[in-house]
Amino acid sequence: MPTVAGGQRAAERGGSGQLSAPRLRHGTPERAGLDREELRRLVREVRILTTGRRPWAAGTVVVAGRGPVIAVEEAAGWAVRYAAYDQETDSGVELPPEARVPTRVDTPFDLASLTKLFTAVAAVQQIERGTLGIDALVGAYLPDFTAAARHGITVRQLLTHTSGLRPELPLYDCADAAERLALLREEAPVGAPGTYCYSDLNMLLLQHLLERLTGRTLDVLVRDGITRPLGMTATGFGPCPGAAATEDQRRPWAKADRGMLRGEVHDENAWALGGVAGHAGLFSTGRDLAVFCRTLLAGGSYGPARILGPDFVDLLFVPPGLGFAVDQPWFMGELAGRGAAGHTGFTGTSLVLDPATDTFLVLLANTVHPRRRPPDSTPRAAAGTRLARAVRKAG
Asked: What are the pLDDT digits (tens) for 100-144?
């Protein structure tokens, strides 16, 4: 498959005999094998997303490249633009210009559901080590999760959102941790196992399984197994004080009354769980996520570090994908079609990596600042299409 071949082609022999994949570096569009004019259009269109009275997002960061070359790394708009949301006028209360915080390329964003990709990689690392069976019963690892055990939910079903579990539970309304845990343990599928239903609960169960299996918490698994070896020093679970602001979170539009959020996880269930959750909670930058993408495109290696073997990277991307969504034009645009993989996050984040063309695209945005709106992935798809055309026009 392209991921394995791409990883082997990109790798170089280090002095220790280990495969060492080239690190990312900045370069011209031509050096990356991308069309300059299409990339200019990509940057211009992403900048426009932050303009006007009601922009798509207050701030954006876009990072795009091919092979080990970053050809685009741009920031636009505001990491913090609003003091609050005014329900009567249905608009944000703008901060004075001197109090606003501009978006920079190193601004961290609340990743929301991009966190699921890291949970999935942590699970596949255990599969590679032989400590976790992909088709094993969840009940074999979590016998006290009685509903999952009774209904025969498997690890693969959690990773592919085919467990039949509902999208979420109101854990944020529980009185304490014991009540939240009891809800998860007793939650039975509402759909037939094997039927696709995107659910945060899948990754919450997977988190509990990984923590039970390894004796380590998810934040430690992600740090020690992914971010630290890859040098992703700006990636981790919150709090993250310098992050882009998200929502003036209040009922009735939100599920909790927390006020304007900055550096604290936006997702109400992740917040109720202390900020570390299998489905949400990570913060990161565009550059760090580019490293994550490059690592997977290079067969699981980056520099001297290896977080997965090439065959197990491929396993992540076998349709319908383990944690990753595969070939979804609604947010990938014309990058979709030949095995592109990625995900979106409710706060406005997304990433796509395309093994067929060795390209990656990271688009970070705080679309929920100052409050959530009906999701609109048209700009994400448009950015993916620009990058795909940049590949084609460069030949």
From this structure: 999 999 999 999 999 999 999 999 999 999 999 999 999 999 999
Distance in angstroms (rounded) separating the CA atoms of residues 381 and 387 = 10
Q: Which of 273, 266, 249, 233 lies closest to 110 in space, CA to CA?
A: 266
Beta pairing partners, 283:
110, 236
- C-alpha to C-alpha distances, 29 to 42, 105, 358, 388, nearest whole angstrom: 12, 18, 14, 13
- The first and second tokens of residue 270, run together, are 């992740």
Structural domains of the chain sorted by starting position, each given as residue range(s) with its CATH number in brackets: 2-112+234-249+259-394 (3.40.710), 120-218 (1.20.58.710)
pLDDT in tens, 283-323: 999 999 999 999 999 999 999 999 999 999 999 999 999 99
How many other C-beta atoms are found inside a 10 Å radius of the C-beta of residue 252?
Answer: 6
Give the span between the Cα atoms of 218 and 276, in whole angstroms: 7
Under 8 Å between Cβ of 335 and 27: no
Residues of the chain with pLDDT under 70: 1-19
Q: Give CA–CA dist 342/293, Å, rounded.
A: 9
H-helix segments, 11-151: 29-32, 36-48, 115-129, 138-141, 146-150
Cα distance between residue 344 and residue 367, in whole Å: 12
Q: Which two tokens stand for residue 299?
A: 């067969």
Q: Return the HEC string of 338-370.
A: CCCEEEECCCCCEEEEECCCCEEEEEEECCCCC
Amino acid at 48: I
Helices (H), 196-285: 200-214, 218-222, 228-230, 268-272
CA distance 335 to 285: 22
What letter represents residue 349's amino acid?
T
